[in-house]
Amino acid sequence: MSLANHSQFLRDCQSKGIPLEQSSAKIKANLVEYEREIPGCLYPRHRDDVKTIVALANEHQVALFPLSSGKNWGFGSKMPAKDGAVIVDLMALNRIIKIDHELGYAVIEPGVTQRQLSEALAESKSPYFLDVTGSSPDTSIIGNSLERGIGYNELRVKTLGCLEVVLGSGNVVKTGFGHFEIDSDVTHLYPYGIGPNLDALFFQSNFGIVLSGTIQLLRRPRSIAHLTLFIKDEKKVPDVILKLSKLKEKNLISGIPHVFSRERADPGMAGMLYYELKQRGQDTSETNISSYLDSKFSGEWTVSACMMGSPLQVFLAGWVCWLQLFRFGMVLIMTDGWHKYLSWFSGLFGFRKWNILLSVFKRIRHVPIGKPLDEFVASVHWPVTKELDSVDLLEPDEGDAGFVYSAPFAAATPEAVEKMLDLTNQVAKQHGFTAAVTLNLVTTKLVEGVISISYSRSAPEIVKKAKQCIRDMNIRFNKEGMFPYRADIDSMDIFVNDQDVFWKTCAAIGKVLDPKGIIAPGRYSL
Questions:
Q1: CA-based torsion, 211, 212, 213, 218: positive or negative
Q2: Residue 318 has pLDDT above 60, yes or no
Q3: Closest CA to 448 of 232, 229, 217, 260
Q4: Which residues lie across from 87 on neighbouring strands?
Q5: Which among 7, 34, 206, 508 is least buried, having the fewest CB atoms inside 10 angstroms?
Q6: Which domain does 316 fall in, by range?
Q7: Pairing state between β 409-411 and 329-334
Q8: Handedness of CA 357, 362, 365, 370 (dihedral sign)
Q9: CATH number of the structural domain spanning residue 406
């Protein structure tokens, strides 16, 4: 597609009143240091603008790359999969169209963030909450869900449906029962509709631009306790995963337990300690923060899990979990009442360090019940900068810290988990890195690995090595049958094979829904 096509397309969009930016340098900043040629960025203000953009893109045969918030950190941020695509930034489409506090769902546009919906639910004292992720509060709910992101309680692919989509052809389709004229609650409660289920076509695909969707909410529990296990011996991690699987299978553990390596846990804690110390007007230096990270409340690996239900259910589940897990390391189980007592006690008797750590644990405890944290974003900066005063904590794309992900799945067996960890360490060591790892028990039988490499973006050779390291990991995981469930923009070719009937079928569907191939070329496609 020629430069003339892009220029005329952008002029035509501007003539329709659609705000634009020519080849923005800010758009090009990203954690991984991927480089793409971007002719411009469009900022539609409402859904009709999106329809206009798609119509003009078809007329001029210009490729588009839609994004919701662009915070796809570690996988490409706002970068398209291929050169030459015009960014369509949907952040202004941020209406919460409807919240049903009785049935527990919300209808939202793609620009609605975790922060926005969580605050709306809290302000209305809703009996429901949004299942959030461990990323920024300012990430898009729909954007992350379409990438099959994972919350603290559920796979988000299970919670999003009833989509309204502008297809690449320019037609607008509503999935499930949404295409019927009557707006029924049933439409939002049963996403499959009658006939083929089209929702699945728009997860990790490039067939259209989603304008709205229904997100299922979770009911607030009567009581919650947070469990933390500090594992001293790394070799015990596979056995801990198996034990957690059994506890989750019996509904003694709620949601998705997270198991963090020290390389992942310390940066996450560093950000929360920084916020807490700064709020109290205390020393936020690396030396002081590190003194907390090296306290006895630490281990080579750390488990974070919850028990939810009635007070009696939570109490009994807590005791069973403690009895099953204490042999692996120190176990802390914190309820609201226990936390208040310890905070009062530590404050009264001057145990300052304990008091600050308890405040940090309090922040963590609220995440599984729908309160996203800014503090987690600081974990991107800490491994590289070792200080947080001079960086924009909420915009890691703008800093010096580099960060790239691999996200493989493995069976929840000790053998499979051990194999994943061995492969991770082997490949990382070959390239001179130490990987940070989180193991998320997404079901009783399946573990998601969240594996990242951190590096300084100011060192080109290190950036190159980090990219190659994560690419080699993806290749190895793929060959071993531990398939990553999502891909960074430079790894698409590892998973997309033009000889595979699956991808040929996807391409055939694309020819119908997007005949000219204008939507996100190369994104999960041939």
A1: positive
A2: yes
A3: 260
A4: 41, 65
A5: 508
A6: 223-385
A7: unpaired
A8: negative
A9: 3.40.462.10
